């Protein structure tokens, strides 16, 4: 099925998607589910964006450290993590310690 919190159901003009399923049938399924389980997709999207899922709201910070030579690898790790973790800010700090 389609996750309607990501995007509205739409498809080709003939009423079928790439797998041949009827889009109208998918819309009907979602309508039946929402009739029994009230669900506001806008509030769900907003909650997902702000990470406010659950009670109490949880906050976490992720710190990624590495040498300047690994800056490309660190950048790739940040890109992957930002896909899975909803983040409001990515702060880059260069900190050099002399040993």
UniProtKB/TrEMBL annotation:
Give coiled-coil spans as residue ranges.
none
Which InterPro entries does UniProt cross-reference here? Answer: FNIP_mid_dom
Give the GO cellular component terms, alphabetically.
cytoplasm
Q: Where is this region: Disordered?
A: 1-21
The record places domain Folliculin-interacting protein middle at 1-91
What domain of life is recorded for the organism?
Eukaryota
Q: Output the Gene Ontology terms for molecular function.
A: ATPase inhibitor activity; protein-folding chaperone binding
Question: One Pfam family of this protein, by short name?
Answer: FNIP_M
Protein name according to UniProt: Folliculin-interacting protein 2
């Amino acid at each position: 099925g389609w996750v309607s919190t990501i995007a509205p159901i739409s498809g080709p003009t003939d009423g079928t998607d790439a797998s041949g399923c009827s889009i109208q049938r998918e819309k009907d399924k979602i309508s039946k589910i929402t009739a029994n389980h009230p669900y506001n997709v806008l509030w769900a999207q907003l909650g997902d964006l702000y990470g406010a899922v659950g009670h109490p709201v949880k906050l976490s910070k992720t710190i990624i450290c590495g040498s300047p030579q690994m800056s490309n690898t660190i950048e790739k790790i940040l890109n992957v993590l930002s896909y899975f973790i909803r983040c409001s800010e990515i702060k880059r700090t260069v900190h050099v310690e002399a040993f």
